[in-house]
TrEMBL record:
<dbReference type="InterPro" id="IPR021454">
    <property type="entry name" value="DUF3105"/>
</dbReference>
<feature type="compositionally biased region" description="Basic and acidic residues">
    <location>
        <begin position="8"/>
        <end position="21"/>
    </location>
</feature>
<feature type="region of interest" description="Disordered">
    <location>
        <begin position="1"/>
        <end position="21"/>
    </location>
</feature>
<keyword id="KW-0812">Transmembrane</keyword>
<keyword id="KW-1133">Transmembrane helix</keyword>
<protein>
    <submittedName>
        <fullName>DUF3105 domain-containing protein</fullName>
    </submittedName>
</protein>
<feature type="transmembrane region" description="Helical">
    <location>
        <begin position="31"/>
        <end position="52"/>
    </location>
</feature>
<dbReference type="Pfam" id="PF11303">
    <property type="entry name" value="DUF3105"/>
</dbReference>
<keyword id="KW-0472">Membrane</keyword>
């Protein structure tokens, strides 16, 4: 009998020891889980703050670029540029034109690169919709033309075509705005796109750049 009581006591003691060990493991696991969760939350908060800060910095840079003047840029009073739809030829005071009366159908400008001449009246309508028009003459180096074409193809509300009788080898035009640049790496290219693709000069922001006339 005494041996049985001693055996039962030992078994209860072992069970109690195992129960306490299990409780200790559970407490450790809870602490570990809480600690890991806290680290994850803090990491997410920190990453979220970093992303927001980066977006804020990017927005500030874009706003600064939009306000900064572009060297040697030419401007025309947008309010004085005609906006009538016409079916007859139009003589523009600048080449390429940056605004004025134009065809009722726009030139497709969803990153469209044209390798031959396009009608000015259609291109002007694209500018009215907020497009930037990149033009080049035979004086422009082929490598620069290729790089600019790659940029246009990636940019909605832009188009590109040759204009042989323009004054500069490479020119960028928006509604009421124009600049001659030295090449694709000229910082004024990015500045012009940032400022005028669907920029504040756009008479009809958000109007279509597809569904018009192609080549």
């Amino acid at each position: 009998m005494a041996a049985n009581r001693s055996s039962n006591a030992d078994r209860r003691a072992r069970i109690e020891q195992m129960r306490r060990a299990e409780q200790a493991r559970e407490r450790r696991n809870r602490f570990i889980t809480i600690g890991v969760s806290a680290v994850v939350v803090l990491s997410l908060v920190g990453f979220g703050g970093y992303v927001l800060n980066e977006k804020s910095n990017e927005k500030e840079q874009q706003e600064a670029a939009a306000k900064a003047p572009i060297k040697d840029e030419k401007s025309w009073d947008a309010k004085k540029l005609g906006r009538n739809h016409v079916t007859t030829p139009v003589t523009y005071e600048m080449k390429p034109p940056v605004g004025g009366d134009h065809d009722q159908v726009w030139q497709n400008c969803d990153g469209d690169v044209y390798t031959s001449k396009i009608a000015e009246r259609n291109a002007v309508h694209s500018l009215e919709h907020g497009a930037v028009w990149v033009t080049y003459s035979k004086k422009a180096p082929e490598a620069e033309v290729k790089k600019l074409a790659e940029k246009v193809e990636k940019t909605p509300y832009s188009l590109m075509s040759p204009v042989d009788d323009q004054t500069g080898a490479i020119m960028l035009s928006a509604w009421g705005k124009q600049v001659t640049v030295d090449g694709a790496s000229d910082p004024r290219v990015d500045a012009f796109f940032t400022k005028y693709v669907q920029g504040p000069q756009t008479p009809e922001p958000g109007a279509a750049c597809t569904g018009g006339i192609g080549q």
